[in-house]
Amino acid sequence: MIEFKGVTYRAAKSVKTAAYENIDILCDIDIRISKGRFVSIIGKNGSGKTTFGMLIKGLLAPTSGEVIVDAEVNRGVNDKVGYIFTNPENQIVHPLVEDDIAFGLENQMAAESEMRQRVVAALKEVSMEAHLKSPIHWLSRGEQQKIVAAGVITLNSEVIVFDEAASLLDGKAKDELMRIVLKLNKVDEKTIIYITHDLRDVIFTDDVILLESGSIAFNGSKEAFFKDTDMQEKYKYELPDVVKLVNYFRGKGFELGYCDTPALIEKINAILKQRQRSL
Amino acid sequence: MDVNLKNVYLNYNPNLSSSRNVINNISISINNGEFVLICGRNGSGKTTLAQLITGLIRPTKGSVFFNGEDAFAHSGRALKKRIGMIFQTPEEQLFERTVYEDVSFVLQRDGGLSQSDIAARVKETLSLVGLDYEEYKDRLSFNLSSGERRKAAIACVLVNAPELIVFDEPTVGLDYTARKSLIKVIKRLHSAGKTIICISHNIENFLDFSDTVLIIKEGEIVFSGAGDRLLDNFDMVKDEIRFPDVFTIIHGLEGVRGGLNGNIYSKDDALTFLKGIIK
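YS: structure for the whole thing
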């Protein structure tokens, strides 16, 4: 379980050229995230999403309050938490793909043969097995993002923070990464914190936390979030087309549920078939 | 500016036997004032293609022409100045103290303009990207919001008044408001007669106003044509791009697909159509 108890994170920030002010990036946050939940964190640029994630990992220490992960107060970097940054260059440490993925395992003192096996398995998960021996700088940034994700996934952390980890991936690779994240969550029972600007990702998660200038503006199930269409104007976001569609169908008496596109197609086809039969 | 690529190949390590062609015999013509959207999977060669189009890298084989002049001959090289390339997350390249110093940097470096001329150019360019000159000129680059920093970085390229502008994943990492506003800036540049080349995975952001869509796969062009033709070729290109969800749904509906070819061009059309199902 992750718990924030009265957490404030303050940083000096200049507003105009000369004037520095202390600003609460996060302000008095109280929240509990149960073990095994899949939570999306959304909000505008600068609303505090990354700070929230970094506090869980212990990369930042709260100015006041406590962050508790798995019944222990965070003091320094927490090994139980995996973190995937937006920019892959932030966490690439080796020139070769296989060495980079193995880096975290080496720190965990994994045996060489086991390490090899896990590196290959991780690369297969992200469909990059052909690049085992490639220098990382030969890869595109999107491909580097996959390598970084593979490296963190091998560590088998209890909690994994994805900080816009799919932003540079193509549509198909995004879907693949989401399949992997769902497996980590549903099969391996990992707690997933998924920071994103793409509200289509929210469809796959359990809960939504919406941050607005350092405070929690919404914390609840994705169903409650998607049904509340009044927040869009206030917090400046747009619901995905598929959500609009599901909401519209509900208004007409058909409950499709918020699900991925293939499942949606199946459900609409079933409705079409039923209506044909009744004609 | 017209750009022509003739049988262009690119291999980053031609002397290495294991190395492959990142660009494999591509020929394209881009006309003055055209808006070209380049799509394809991670590692397919999009960024490399853009760098070839701008003359940043020399093809291993084949030729690049600007307005009919060889890009690497003396006459062509002068034209290169009229091309602007905006890389992925360009804000990482901001390095001066204030927005004004960053945007005016190339003008100061190249010389030949008076300080008042430079100020006028900076003012004009900032308004082009939607940043108010008086409000932003003395702001510290590093303390702008992500969307503002992205725009300031784009202004650094636009200040040179390029005729052809390449955007490599321009909206990555931006929230809804910043994304919408940046798309408007790009649209405005296109309406002002600039030739625009845009690389993006989020085709729905740009499909509506692209003249040409190029889809590349493993260094080869597998689709080249108008955006509305893309939908008629769903099966052919569905593995290379992620269609907007509403298109995918329509395509998956039984007994519907055949009847709508050529009738649905935009996402709004598609959503309206789907809502009509349960009339």
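YS: worth flagging: The two ends of chain A are 52 Å apart (CA to CA).
IM: good catch. Also Chain A has a mean pLDDT of 92.
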